[in-house]
């Protein structure tokens, strides 16, 4: 019996093992990288399946979802992680248990309210006399809305584990969520489109084939269709809804995993730790401290996500004001088969093909953002300024080493990437100029989450809020001016976001350094990686230009990327952009450092 108890305790201890800042950040980064790969496997084929109009419905619903998700989820898990980390550092284990119990109830309430509110607002935006979204977007909104509740409950568990410096449950649950989305969402979306296509083709075949198109109609998903294009367009609202339903069910599966794990392995706090802990604070004090941390953070993330909502609410309206005839004169056959009323949604969908690719870069640094909070908060509470400085430089540099080459690569290969992933689509024809701007934006956007998280960790929760509100106002003005200019139209959409991220990241770094009295290694952290990344992008572009003299095969893009990676790695070591301390901060870093030192690559 005693042996069984010991084995069970050892299993719980192993499952709840803490990680260092860099280890935790890397675990989350690997998890997020897997999630983004799965997400790419979801969104890239989805774009080819449901087309530009379908992606317009998809992102109308998704961007409406983000503010509700943010209010219900974004700030509170961070607040929970911070409070758990601080109380663990102070040995107040009873506070940790009590905080977790109280916060789970708060998550249930906020998630339920946000779910109901999203449904109500969705109906208003799609069915009222002053509707902004296409009326067909309501199906996608209804499919997406329950995930607010599931994600809220799920984030309570994630925040607790992150505060305990155990990033494995978060990473595992993210992968489960993404796999559920991929399998359920993509399969059902394909099925909806294929069913609509089959119904149209089979009924026309029975009447002598497609030669009768235009003179006879077939009802597809309640819409009268006279051509295959019309039948496919009738399928897209429901296919987009099924894709988003996959996200909802994926979040439900992820929640089930976290609930099981917590029940199976416990809280990670031993009976001995509880016995040695002082009595917990009053519930009122815990809730007050939790809200004081969580609400400013939620408002900051909300301001950031409002930029996407601003895009949803302004871009389609500004495109509509330019007139369908003017847009057709600019884009010509790229919009064939699109109705005049559907042009704003169509171009909105085109822009979001670029956003899908852009999002892959900032998500790579999310792990560093989440992983930075507990360790930096603990160092700040302990008044260890040197650890704060080391942690800040480490998080920023690891993020830069990933984000800068990715952004430069997107800028250099924008047309090639779009043709590779979306061959023959209107998006591949219209989107390249926008994707180039998004590549530049990715380098700043990827830094936003780590910078904001570090500000939150040192008690400056309101700084990101203030910076983002100002940035959002600037973005709103630029959206109206640029997108509302006929010669620029949809191609002006990314510039407002670019200015937004430059302003918030630079401003955030200034406040962080001033507050903590630390100095950042600008040359090593930013300038050298940027030079290496610029050489990487130039190598990719040059490789394409040379190979195009011999072939226009898609293999050119893969070769260019491979050459760029090699050039980037060589440039990093040639510029001494990677130090021994950087390598030692990684898991198994000592072995790597010895190998690199022998070859004279680091000092």
Element layout with pairings:
Elements: H1 2-15, H2 21-89, H3 93-127, H4 138-144, H5 146-163, H6 168-206, E1 218-220, E2 223-225, H7 228-265, H8 271-276, H9 283-322, H10 324-331, H11 343-358, H12 360-364, H13 366-381, H14 385-412, H15 414-421, H16 426-430, H17 432-457, H18 462-483, H19 493-516, H20 522-547, H21 555-574, H22 580-584, H23 589-598
Antiparallel strand pairs: 1-2
Gyration radius over CA: 25 Å
Helical content stands at over 70%
SS summary, helix count: 23
The largest sheet has its strands arranged as: 1-2
How many structural domains in the coordinates? 1
Q: How many individual β-strands?
A: 2
Q: Structural class from helices and strands?
A: mainly alpha
Q: Quick one: biggest sheet?
A: 2 strands, antiparallel
User: What general form does the structure show?
Assistant: globular
Notes on the structure:
The chain has 603 residues and is mainly α. It has one domain. Helices cover 80% and strands 1% of the residues. The chain has a two-stranded antiparallel ribbon with strand order 1-2.
Key structural traits:
603 residues, 23 helices, globular
In short:
It is built from 23 helices and two strands. It is mainly alpha-helical.
